[in-house]
Amino acid sequence: MLRTVTATRYVTPLREGGSLPGLMEADDLGTYVVKYVGAGQGRKTLIAEIVCAGLARAIGLRVPELVLVDVDPELGRSEPDEEVQDLLKASGGLNLGTDFLPGSLGFDPLAHQLDPVEASTVVWFDALVGNVDRSWRNPNLLMWHRQLWLIDHGACLTFHHAWARADGWASKPYDDAHHVLREMATAAVQPQLTTAQVEAAVADVPDLWLEGEDGFDSPAAVRAAYLDQITRRLAR
Q: What is the C-alpha separation between 81 and 68, in angstroms, rounded?
């Protein structure tokens, strides 16, 4: 299960993405990049982040620690930016934080070289979760202490945006033509990912974010549907 921390201070907005994540300090003395349930993409983005992080770690890839961040809407009162105020007001309660990696650099394929096995494993992982957001223009990769770290998986697992049409996702081909690691991914890899590991990744999602899903009568039923989709794609 993910740890829960309480936000103590809003530091600054991060305007690189469309959802306006914010850098926040918490009561464990940590600093986190926080994505909010009140943002335009909503809780589905946060669910995808959690599940994909668990799957990536299970096959040996590095993802910054994720935590649940309890946000008091009152933290927005002192913010001069009205957009930030509105976002914090709409995001009271649990949100998702990613451990801030100070001094990290954005991955540059012209400056950074990776081991072919690691590069191929990242491409394999992205094919599994349907990640179209790992291009040259927007790699969503960081170099920290000379190691590769994966971030920003909110655009993956697209089946959960339309459960009634989800069945085709498991067999949908993955197009890696624009993948930032395509030229480095020269090794033949077949990472071992078990059903139990997929279950563990899905189990990290809070029940709160699975409640009220159309077509399902409980969070457990939604978890089972995630497990079904991912394991069927894994089998291919």
A: 24
Rounded CA gap, 18 and 14, in Å? 9
Pairwise CA distance, residues 26 & 14, whole Å: 17
State how far the Cα of 139 lies from the Cα of 3, in Å rounded to an integer. 27
- The residues near 182 (Cβ < 8 Å, ≥ 6 apart) are 123, 176
Token reading at 77? 């009162």
Please write the tens of the pLDDT for every residue from 157-203: 999 999 999 999 999 999 999 999 999 999 999 999 999 999 999 99
User: What is the edge-to-edge ordering of all strands in the sheet holding 105-106?
Assistant: 105-106, 141-144, 147-150
Residues 6 or more apart whose CB falls under 8 angstroms from that of 212 comprise: none
Q: Over the stretch 119-151, which tens digit does the pLDDT of each residue have? A: 999 999 999 999 999 999 999 999 999 999 999
Q: Measure CA 126 to chain center.
A: 12
Distance CA 126, CA 131 (A): 5
